[in-house]
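Need residues for this backbone.
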């Protein structure tokens, strides 16, 4: 393991005091994320201000160590897995909601705020922060902005990028800069905010964000439709959109995943159901009652064998709890898994699901898919039993085929999890050399000495 020089460690201590540690129990805790990939940092610091963060990055440039920002480490592509010998900046102590501005419908927040807490606080005053990753109860605003998190309501409301008005960040050179405007419109110069959203902590470290809020919808209606095949459920998604329905959520779960969550959490599903769609609409009370019935009617025309309507909030919460248990249940069901988040044009979901099933069969792998189907964003999982020798190689070949298929469908390698470490070797399947060179040039402008989160996004040279 690489260590900091004695001089660098002493200077770090000078900035952070007790909030700096080189102890193994702290560096180990900062060495992984939800991918189970690991890298050993030399130290961990807990900034409490933008100025401390800037001092850290300046020191990194002078002493030649890397800095890796860390939120809740729930990332699924290794984004916050530290480079060996780096310093992890853990934003757990910058977790304040600084302002909820009810006249302008914005919130000013620090990066360590947990997204679910922000949602609850703004809902108390009748406002709504729509981005809703299934990890909302633990992932942070900083991590969501750095990954451009999506989630359960993307179809109607978009993703994190659509709600970031302004950022305060520290660049890789250690300067504190402010991007965007506290207005709904702004075209003053290049849109640096959009560039920074989704940049995975490689261009700058976010220390404050002003987020757009909207009025909390008056009514919500939720239903679950069950189908005999994933293909039928996929067709129902396309049909609803073609019929100009815009549910706020359209979540797909295939039969294998349903079987796993049923076994591990005790859920019961109708017999013969090999796919389900969670349909949720919001808006005025009368409108939602009409919209949910229109959506259910489409599902039934596309072959739904059963439909459950949530009668009250408790029933709706149970449906979403089941959805949020999918990922943990898959972790529990298999010693390991390969989990991807491809995104295809929505009308290509049925053929993509069929082709992924065929790839799984060819490589003799258990495939489980669930999807933010309204966004075309499919979480393809290959379950990996590590006692089966050769399975990892088969899974990796299968993943490569899935990515090639995605690109051939006009899709993208990542809808919401980013590239990080996990997908960087596939990056050039989608990004042409000239575009990659432009991206690398931007990285050099923001981070001339390459101190921020090295080794991520771009393929190894
Ligand atoms: C069960 C489960 C469900 C999930 N569901 C979804 C989902 O529905 N939709 C979705 O989009 N994702 C989902 N995710 C993935 C993950 O929660 C998101 O990627 C989330 O945005 C990561 O936030 P985090 O706070 O955990 O960040 P981390 O994992 O700690 O970091 C992620 C990236 O952000 C960078 N970063 C963190 N803080 C900052 C900062 N202050 N400044 C600059 N860069 C920073 C890190 O360096 C890293 O590159 C899920 C994960 C799990 C485990």
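Answer:
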């Amino acid at each position: 393991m690489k260590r900091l020089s004695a001089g660098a460690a002493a200077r770090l201590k000078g900035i952070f005091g007790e909030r700096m540690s080189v102890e193994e129990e702290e560096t180990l805790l900062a060495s992984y994320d939800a991918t189970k990939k690991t890298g050993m940092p030399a130290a961990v610091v807990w900034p409490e201000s933008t100025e401390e963060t800037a001092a850290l990055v300046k020191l990194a440039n002078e002493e030649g160590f890397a800095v890796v920002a860390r939120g809740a480490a729930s990332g699924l592509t290794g984004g916050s897995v530290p480079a060996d010998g780096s310093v992890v900046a853990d934003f757990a102590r910058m977790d304040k909601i600084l302002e909820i501005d009810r006249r302008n419908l914005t919130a000013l927040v620090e990066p360590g705020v947990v997204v679910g807490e922000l949602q609850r606080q703004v809902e108390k005053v009748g406002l709504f922060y729509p981005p809703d990753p299934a990890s909302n109860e633990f992932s942070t605003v900083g991590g969501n902005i750095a990954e451009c998190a999506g989630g359960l309501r993307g179809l109607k409301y978009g993703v994190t990028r659509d709600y970031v008005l302004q950022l305060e960040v520290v660049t890789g050179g250690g300067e504190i800069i402010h991007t965007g405007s506290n207005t709904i419109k702004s075209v003053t110069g290049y849109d640096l905010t959009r560039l920074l959203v989704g940049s995975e902590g490689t261009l700058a470290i976010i220390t404050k964000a002003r987020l757009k809020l909207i009025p909390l919808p008056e009514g919500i209606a939720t239903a679950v439709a069950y189908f005999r095949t994933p293909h039928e459920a996929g067709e129902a998604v396309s049909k609803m959109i073609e019929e100009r329905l815009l549910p706020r959520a359209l979540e797909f779960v295939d039969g294998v995943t349903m079987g796993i969550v049923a076994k591990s959490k005790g859920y019961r599903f109708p017999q013969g159901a090999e796919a389900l769609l969670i349909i949720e609409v919001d808006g005025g009370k009368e409108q939602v009652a009409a919209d949910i019935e229109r959506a259910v009617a489409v599902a039934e025309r596309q072959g739904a064998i059963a439909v459950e309507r949530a009668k009250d909030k408790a029933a709706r919460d149970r449906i979403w709890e089941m959805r949020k248990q999918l990922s943990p249940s898959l972790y529990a069901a298999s010693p390991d898994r390969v989990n991807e988040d491809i995104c295809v044009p929505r009308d290509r979901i049925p053929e993509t699901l069929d082709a992924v099933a065929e790839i799984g069969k060819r490589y003799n792998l258990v495939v489980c898919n669930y999807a933010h189907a309204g966004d075309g964003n499919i979480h393809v999982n290959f379950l990996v039993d590590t006692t089966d020798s050769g399975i990892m190689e088969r899974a990796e070949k299968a993943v490569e085929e899935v990515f090639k298929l995605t690109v051939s469908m006009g899709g993208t390698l990542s809808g919401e999890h980013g590239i990080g470490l996990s997908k960087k070797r596939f990056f050039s399947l989608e990004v042409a050399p000239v575009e990659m060179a432009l991206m690398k040039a931007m990285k050099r402008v923001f981070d001339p000495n390459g101190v921020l989160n090295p080794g991520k996004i771009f393929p190894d040279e």
